[in-house]
Q: What sequence folds into this?
């Protein structure tokens, strides 16, 4: 029997799919490289960095497994942050520039999407800062990718 219950889109789909994430991180890292606080942290990043981060975040939010199947793993992502000694000032500016870029690109701004997106970014950036003060991680090499969903609202704002 067919269900009439509407299917809840993933955060990835609601944001606009992969083109939205690729553009978001492309424009975000342009801002990062023009920023006094973040430029010294990212000046040696690889040419693929922005695409890898786009693929990583897209996958966490329900998108295809491009990062974990062909570019890295959760473990590898954590390793990239080890001994980077990131500060709260770095993290705050990272958040500020990413959210500014999301607004400029007009990512969905319904309360449901933005609260879930922000929750993931808060979590991810705080983990990155914690790991950046360690020289090695206790995380198992086969740790699964995090999966983020809509949380309490359960789905997007439908007027
Ligand atoms: C949700 C939050 C974050 C995610 C999902 C994330 C994800 C990633 C990923 C996937 C890589 C590896 C990229 C590659 O393979 O080339 C990476 C590297 C890195 N990330 Fe993050 N990151 C986050 C937050 C941060 C923050 C807040 C900072 C600093 C303000 C930071 C600094 C770096 C640095 C310095 C590298 C290494 C760049 C290099 O190769 O030189 N990350 N991150």
A:
């Amino acid at each position: 029997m067919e269900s009439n219950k509407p299917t809840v889109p993933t955060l990835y789909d609601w944001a606009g799919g992969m083109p939205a994430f690729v553009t978001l991180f492309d424009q975000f890292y342009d801002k990062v490289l023009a920023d006094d606080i973040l430029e010294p942290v990212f000046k040696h990043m690889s040419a693929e960095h922005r695409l890898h981060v786009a693929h990583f975040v897209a996958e966490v939010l329900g998108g295809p497994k491009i990062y974990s199947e062909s570019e890295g793993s959760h473990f590898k992502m954590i390793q990239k942050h080890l001994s980077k000694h990131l500060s709260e000032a770095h993290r705050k500016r990272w958040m500020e520039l990413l959210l500014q870029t999301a607004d400029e690109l007009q990512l969905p701004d319904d309360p449901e999407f933005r609260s879930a997106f922000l929750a993931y970014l808060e979590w991810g950036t705080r983990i990155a800062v914690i790991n950046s003060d360690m020289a090695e991680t206790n995380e198992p090499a086969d740790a699964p990718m995090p999966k983020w969903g809509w949380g309490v609202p359960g789905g997007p704002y439908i007027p």
